[in-house]
């Protein structure tokens, strides 16, 4: 089918919710996707930060194929070997203390459940979140999202959400108190333009939460599963080795098969009773096969080390660029801040068949590349920007 025909049937029969690129993607492999007209694109946006293992990684597709032949789905009402193995693998790479997983289907759902757990465990209601953070589009998550117009879209918002300034520890101190059930944050604020905080900030947040008995939640929907060059931001040197009570995950976790998860410590898991949480699809066999194979592929192909190498290489390649102000972020979650709007660069890259992403900061272009991206592929990107 031609691009125009594909565009036409989508526009005719689907609610339009995204400003799309003028390409129809047909297939992918590694850091590359092929469009309906046969053209090949370098995907440094990683299918919207999802395809950490690259597009259609052979180990992942094989596991999904094999699982599909056996059984696609049964819910949490039965035991399942593949679910057990996926949970075991995920908790084995999680920071120490995060011993149990709760599976769901998306990032927003993981955050909803994390906030519910914080309220259940503390018996309190208040949630503190941060300016510039994005946590999803369902009621509680959008109410915790103090970024642009998102929160307004979720009106009437869930009560008892309070905003604190990201990176400002004295503001956090004044907002997090003994009425606070949970504190949720994106440890690197991706959509805001890849905004970071120092490890000391996370150390102080941990102390405040401990002092008042609030649950600390890292939304690692973007930073998790190897993206920053660490399995997780929590527990790594990036957070000053701070381990939150809950880490939420989605995006990369299933290499594109929809799946979300909350990784929790004993304090949380021992207070959750049967029927406190639930989901039909969460923990389904197909998704669990994707999770297990994703984690195995990252390990086998040494993708976490590669994410670090990609960051170093990209920083070196753009070091002398007169148009780049700063490069923020870690591993394969990078924000390139230009000294003018990034849109013309985004467009020039797309004309050269390289897909990147914008952010809510008009000057910041986002790179959310697959963790398997090669140095030569980074050079193709740099050539266009430096050319
Ligand atoms: C940090 C973060 N949290 C939560 C979400 C929501 O995830 P989902 O779209 O899977 O609901 C996103 C999505 O972009 C995100 O970037």
Descriptive notes:
By secondary structure, this protein is an alpha/beta fold. It has two domains: 1-43, no CATH class; 59-300, Aspartate Aminotransferase, domain 2 (3-Layer(aba) Sandwich). Helices cover 37% and strands 18% of the residues. It is built from 14 helices and 14 strands. Helix 3 runs antiparallel to helix 11, helix 4 runs parallel beside helix 11 and helix 12 packs parallel to helix 14 (375-386). It is globular. Bound molecules: pyridoxal-5'-phosphate. Pyridoxal-5'-phosphate (PLP) is lined by residues 106-108, 111, 134-136, 186, 190-191, 219, 221-222, 250.
List the defining traits of the structure above.
387 residues, alpha/beta, Aspartate Aminotransferase, domain 2, 2 domains, 7-stranded mixed β-sheet, 4-stranded mixed β-sheet, 14 helices, binds pyridoxal-5'-phosphate
Give a brief description:
Helices cover 37% and strands 18% of the residues.
The residue ranges in which pLDDT falls below 50 over 5 or more consecutive positions are none
In angstroms, what is the radius of gyration? 20 Å
**Residue-averaged pLDDT:** 98
The helix-and-strand class reads alpha/beta
Assign an overall shape: globular
Largest sheet: 7 strands, mixed
Number of helices: 14
Straight-line N-to-C gap: 35 Å
Q: Order of strands across the biggest sheet?
A: 4-10-9-8-7-5-6
Write the CATH fold name of the largest domain: Aspartate Aminotransferase, domain 2
Bound chemical compounds: pyridoxal-5'-phosphate
Strand fraction: 15-25%
The tally of strands reads: 14
In sequence order, what are the helices and strands, one letter per element? HEEEHHHEHEHHEHEHEEEHHHEEHEEH
CATH architectural type of the largest domain: 3-Layer(aba) Sandwich
Output the CATH class name of the largest domain. Answer: Alpha Beta
**CATH homologous superfamily assignment of the largest domain:** Type I PLP-dependent aspartate aminotransferase-like (Major domain)
Helix amount, in percent?
Answer: 25-40%
Give the total of domains. Answer: 2
